[in-house]
Amino acid sequence: MKSRLLTPGPTQVPENVFTAMVNALWHPRSAEFSALLRAVSSQLAALFKTNHEVLTLTCSGTGAMEAAVVNFLRRGDKVITVDGGKFGERWAELAGIYGVEAVTLQVPWGETASPEQLTPLLRQHPDATAVFLTHSETSTGVVFDIAALAGAVHQTSEALVIVDGISSIGVLPFYTDDWGVDVCVSGSQKGTMTPPGLAFVATSERAWKKARTSDLPRFYLDLGKARDGLAAGYTAWTPAVTLIAGLHEALNTIFAEGLENRWAKSATLARAIRAAAAAIGLQLYAKSPGDAVTAVSVPSTIDGRTLLERLRIGYGVRVADGQDRLKGKIFRVAHMGDIDQLDTVGFVSAMELALHDCGWQFELGAAVSAVQRVYAEATD
Amino acid sequence: MKSRLLTPGPTQVPENVFTAMVNALWHPRSAEFSALLRAVSSQLAALFKTNHEVLTLTCSGTGAMEAAVVNFLRRGDKVITVDGGKFGERWAELAGIYGVEAVTLQVPWGETASPEQLTPLLRQHPDATAVFLTHSETSTGVVFDIAALAGAVHQTSEALVIVDGISSIGVLPFYTDDWGVDVCVSGSQKGTMTPPGLAFVATSERAWKKARTSDLPRFYLDLGKARDGLAAGYTAWTPAVTLIAGLHEALNTIFAEGLENRWAKSATLARAIRAAAAAIGLQLYAKSPGDAVTAVSVPSTIDGRTLLERLRIGYGVRVADGQDRLKGKIFRVAHMGDIDQLDTVGFVSAMELALHDCGWQFELGAAVSAVQRVYAEATD
To answer: Residues 207..266 of B with a Cβ closer than 8 Å to A: which?
Structure first.
């Protein structure tokens, strides 16, 4: 049986990306590797829609989140975090570890936050030096309006806007510079459909200024060292060379297809899944579902783990379980990576069959035809 | 022209390791990945000669060095470092960043350190909580006698023994448990002939006890989280799955060949290079050269950069330049990774030809025949 990865990271990697990694053993201090790194950095800047450099680190997205904390803050700083799920929560946890006080706007899981909710907090804490946001909250499927939230920050405060774009960059429209995002982090195994192991950090000049006075301890995740390295054509530390070669190929593929076309594709796939769920009586978990990941509530009569096992063992399809208190209560389907319309038809067909196996009552084929209707409308 | 990597990391990766990485897209929370991770962890324990677990991190060796500092010390601790080169120096730098006082035994570059030099320092600083050592100092080619130095520590002190085994594990005889090494770090792109991007940390129970009271800030490099993850069959953060698949294949190859046989091979290759250098009037940089990397002094009449360029452009061979103040003054040849006796004959032949091109006077073929004599003796 073929294996199909519809998890929100790792995502399906195209064959040509794997092929590009074979024998990609450039020495990290060679002219050839420098050329590769510079090419990838330019591609990443285009992906993040920024004129500033984007740094590539060898670590997971979490490592890049930690880098976004330790490079731009000072011990004793106060920051604001917006927490609407497991990843929003992580910003405050990271801040606390480094002696930074986090004031948190708590958002119920599955909901988004508005500028109207954020602004009073900004007014109440004019000394906050940074605001930490999550674009696509992978644990709930909610997408936050970064343009609006960043706008609210800049209107009220001098704080840096630091965004977790891990499951959104390359998937959802994102304009780092235009939206006034000072720091945005992402990872290789999401929208850039490369195997895990690389993370990216885009940084504004305002943020670099702050970095100069930051006093938090750092070495491996020191972005100043990474920036100096990139200026000379190298990484600060020995990088995952094969993954960078794969990333270059993946970005070639993405830009050949057109970034805006990929954004549109994710939106169509997400719309299709939402229509499929509705057609067979399934509820979405998020009140404001986004286009990167869809969290579908598992009907209370069905055990979520059994459903996922049926999908995996019966049809070779892997989606993600809920995390923490949502374990077994939702499943999460990604609209990113190397998946297209027909993969989504296949997934919805498997979802129907697995639900049917679990005793859920509905007309077989109803979800698949809902997906087809979405596609037919999209191409009209 | 074929490309041949004789640098002390990245090292040459065998074709089967690259092949194992293609389509290795296991979800890091799948039973299949858990089985892979557990298998790799057992193999690593055999590689490190330890009964304790060995953790795999997605980062470079430097990240693992930082992990060895931030997980086992407290702010204000005093530690002893032995600094005989660029990597020994790094331990003290890392300590300083985290508010740990480093008392350094300064060893002239190219020389080793004896227990007799270390013991007085241990007596003078009985409050030192850790001693940081380097097994193979990659910048100079010197190998330190870890068994003897660790023995001296344990005789005099309660301090942890923390060792940089980055360019030595899998290359030189190393017995983590028998030598009383509490923490040993290494990286994937050296003795384990896997592409860069993974690092390993072996940790004794004594070290874990210290970790419990350590108060240095950490998150991505938190070894407690990595240990808890491994106990459940996972990594703490999304790992470089493809590299772990490659590593598993590389370790299969290493153990099929026999770890002790690989150690013996490195020793033979190092002996061959030393004989080759002597045969054509080249000096070694290290007073006590080890068997992992050989640093050869470039004759003062020759520009080191020109020589390396001749090797690279004329013969497709890449060795490492000297670092910092040794740039252009030495070149460094590795005896690790996927290289064998005939590769070394090829390299020595290229070295002769490049030196000849640079005007060095010697009898062409003298170094190659010296290599052959070493091999003939080794098989007698």
So the answer is: 216-221, 237-243
